[in-house]
Amino acid sequence: MSHADWEAVIGLEVHCQLSTNSKIFSGAAIAYGAEPNTQACPIDLGMPGVLPVLNGDAVKKAVTFGLSVDAEIARRCVFARKHYFYPDLPKGYQISQYELPIVANGHLDIELEDGPNSVTVKRIGITRAHMEEDAGKSLHENFSGSTGIDLNRAGTPLIEIVSEPDIRSAAEAVAYLKKLHQLVVYLGICDGNMQEGSFRCDANVSVRRRGTEKFGTRTETKNVNSFRYVEKAIEYEIERQIEVIEAGGTIVQETRLFNPDTGETRAMRSKENANDYRYFPDPDLLPVVCTEDYIDAIRSSLPELPEAKRARFVSVFGLSDYDAKTLTSSRELAAYYEAVVAASGAEPKLCANWIATDLLGALNKLGKDIGESPIGADAFAGLLKRMVDKTISGKIAKDVFEAMLAGEGSADDIIQAKGLVQITDESAIIAAIDDVIAKNPQQLADFRAGKDRLFGFFVGQAMKATQGKANPDALNRLLKEKLK
Amino acid sequence: MSLSPEQVRQVAQLARLQLNPEQVEPYARQLSNILEMVSRLSSAQTADVAPMAHPLEMTQRLRIDTVSEPNRRDDYQAIAPEVQDGLYLVPKVIE
Amino acid sequence: MTLHKLSIKQLADGLRGKQFSARELTQHYLGRIAAHDKDLNSFITVTPERALAQADAADAVLAQGDGATLTGIPLAQKDIFCTTGVRTSCGSKMLDQFVAPYDATIVQKLDAAGMVMLGKANMDEFAMGSSNETSYYGPVKNPWDVTRVPGGSSGGSVASVAAGLAPIATATDTGGSIRQPAALTNLTGIKPTYGRVSRYGMIAFASSLDQAGVVARSAEDAAYVLQAMSGFDPKDSTSIERPVDDLVSGLNQSIKGLRIGLPSEYFADGLAPGVRERIEQAIDVFKQLGATFSEVSLPNSPLSVPTYYVVAPAEASSNLARFDGVRYGHRAEGAKTLEELYKRSRGEGFGAEVQRRIMIGTYVLSHGYYDAYYLQAQKVRRLIYDDFKRAFEHVDLVLGPTATDVAFKLGAKTDDPVAMYLNDIYTIAANLAGIPAMSLSCGFVEGLPVGLQLMGNFFDEARMLNAAHQYQQATDFHTQWPKEFES
């Protein structure tokens, strides 16, 4: 039986750290990379008698997310305790949400490229998103045979975003994750840093024979921390499950770990398996009520979402869908683009070409993103302005751009310092043309004898004589007249 | 309603309590008596009653998102049984 | 000197009138503790240095003509409240070495009010008990008869106050742990409305039921200290954001016209005849003071004990999961695996009653049993709450016995948890409903004190204290002393 006879059923659980200043239930900081346990206060340490108080900004960010995926926001939601013993969970329970999550029944549309010029849109359901606290970290390096526990991360606010099992391949999973990642970063609710664990994915994977309704037994692969690993882990898990079943075996419902070195998954030995979480409403916290006014205020302050922005860039700026998609891939890039358009007065398409091609190409080489660009939006607009007012030509502009990247100053500084101002004075151009004609009598004779292609030779020579600064249109026109 | 010694061992495992073998039987008897007393609850008519998690009909207050807790690791770890390099130590965990 | 027989008001006047200093007063009490506590075991930790330093600070304030009523007044803190720099054991081996790096909010408040902490009072382990026999530090004895229990879980608090080793003590009440021991030791004990006193820094037993309060020799004494403990605390999400009523100024108001309800369920079988008589005599006193009586029905009160023994252990099993030997508290020696570390630390650190409640709580929350036990208990809890809501449409206070009988002998019920639990049959409902309730002494049966319980509507502490104070103006039971500890 071939793999074409099988279909994968995938649901993703994404843990997204909310970019607040302090923890979800305490006033401790959540900065990444601090010395162990220096950002763990008595509440995070689960000390006796201390109590949680909910961070309002975490609630606001969770609601922001819910509104952005067209979900229902619970008017009343409840925190519950989820119990298990593990050293990175100081209280012996995690404060999470169970029966009444803050966000339910949303969706996200993903685009699948199923051919060179063919894109299909697929809707992935979002079952729920709930608020919870993150756990600490166990460090398994050898501390004389012990495991070390760092609780700095304990209590960091999370939303866990649970998708419907609507995903059918590793590629779809990655498309969904990238879309979700873009969204939460756009919304400013998560820094999206996957290396630091700000955006983590658990993949529930099962397989079934094509045409059957019933889901197979699923496994959960935990904490896969890059898009590529998600793809590999899911592909591996699909293969593994098909092989097991085809060999007459059965899939065990279990939690598995992905090993990036081998590209394989393996069953975890501890923690999640065979647990009874004993959920019940946390008596230290009261129901969270979101009023209509509260939700409306958040809705009205929502930023423009990527899809809307992309459509606007096409309709308002006349960009191609491809350019619009590129320029709206991040909120910062889109803002950069719009700032350049506004400040430069240049054609939006010209701005798009310069930013999408020249700037992003250069940044890519430098390994920087738009936020770290050595040329700010105003400076970039300064360059395009000089093209618009014909101070410099497009060709000269490329040189100025390189100089700007190298930190040589503003466009005007560079144009001034290098004397790159375009020559539009016709008498100066005519003088240069006359000089070139006088020095090349043979070529002139050949041209006049019908060698039309020598026109380009004269353009090049004249341009060279003006150090490339002659206005190209004027030069062409005047040269044609002289050569007549 | 009664709990067998085996059930007592299972619950103790879930609660991470080490029981001495001689405790199991008395616990089974005492816990069974407690559950017997508690089983009277099933007589109450509660079909239309909303569960009451809390005596207060209040809603959760929201805290302003500011960092108010300084680093006091040394104070907090002064009472810890075993620490090294700022980390709490436990016997080696295999994931 | 009989400083220990003075009320808080008299002590405050004496301090202001320079009849004695806060240091002298503190030394007097420290002396009494040294002399008598070996017979009672009411303190787990005595803190003479901290007390004298606080007393000196109070004297300095008083010398400036500053300070308030409580400046320089000593007290005992139940060892459930975290105190920076002083061990907070919660009566458990688990926390035998635990020194909190923070203060409970009420400790902060009472320190700020100028009170002088004499030490930390003994208690049932994690407040789980009705006789103070589950303490890791040994049982507390009842000053009225040292072969008997003082009640629990605030047994150390009541014994210290009843014997004059402290003028007043803090206490906590999850199912009767203030009122039942107050009743058994001739004291006045008040549990305010749930959320009135901050729970921050009070080691949790059952979070939706726990409430701090005081045990005192009179309603007036209780009013002064409860006033200072009460109030909104942003560190406790269940703290009530509402101004605190003045509990003291209304004490002397007449209670003419006060409507008191008598729940028939509280006078049914199981109430000792002697206790019933004393309660009936008290009712007559209230009538003479102008109160009117009517019968009210709390039909679901027989279900309060079963409801409580689902809700409280469920919350306790969760609250006590943090004690795992990793960050603080007892850690088993030589554990080879994490599993062993957890199980042995918890097996060794918790006593039998705590283990029983953790197991019951774990069981009722576990898969397949949640609906039948926990969810059903939450529903019955609402029925009990609704009973009170209906009753308070017709009456101002509800009156009944605090306990079924007088103090029992040490060891009489230790092997029968269910019999022990039934001690709280009259007190538990107030915790489930969240309403304020208090116990006050209303006489003696064969030389042992009997307690009368008043329950009020939400936030009606002032009215309850007023009724209790008026009763105490008309009677002298609360002024009686256990002979061995009087002088």
Describe this protein's structure:
The complex is a heterotrimer of chains A (484), B (95) and C (487). Chain A is of the alpha+beta class and 484 residues long. Helix content of chain A is 39%, strand content 21%. Chain A has 15 helices and 17 strands. Chain A has helices at residues 56-68, 170-187, 227-246, 292-300, 306-317, 321-327, 331-344, 348-366, 377-388, 394-405, 411-418, 426-439, 441-448, 454-465, 472-483; strands at residues 6-17, 54-55, 72-73, 76-77, 80-83, 93-96, 103-115, 118-133, 137-143, 146-150, 157-163, 199-209, 219-224, 255-259, 264-267, 280-281, 288-289. A nine-stranded mixed beta sheet of chain A has the order 3-7-8-11-1-12-13-14-15. In chain A, a hairpin with a 2-residue loop joins strand 7 and strand 8 (118-133). Chain A is elongated and about 95 Å long. The model of chain A has no long low-confidence stretch (mean pLDDT 92). Chain B is an alpha+beta fold and 95 residues long. Chain B has a domain at 5-42: Histone, subunit A (Orthogonal Bundle), CATH 1.10.20. Chain B contains three helices and three strands; from the N terminus they run ααβαββ. Chain B has helices spanning 5-14, 21-38, 73-77, and strands spanning 62-63, 83-84, 87-91. In chain B, strands 2-3 form a two-stranded antiparallel ribbon. In chain B, helix 1 (5-14) packs across helix 2 (21-38). With 487 residues, chain C is α/β, with parallel strands linked by helices. Chain C has one domain (12-260, 393-485): Amidase signature (AS) enzymes, CATH 3.90.1300. Chain C is 37% helix and 13% strand. Chain C is built from 15 helices and eleven strands. Chain C has an eight-stranded mixed beta sheet, with helices on both faces. In chain C, a hairpin with a 2-residue loop joins strand 10 (437-445) and strand 11 (448-456). Chains in contact: A-B, A-C, B-C. At the B-C interface, helix 1, helix 2 and strand 3 of B face helix 9, helix 10, helix 11, helix 12 and helix 13 of C.
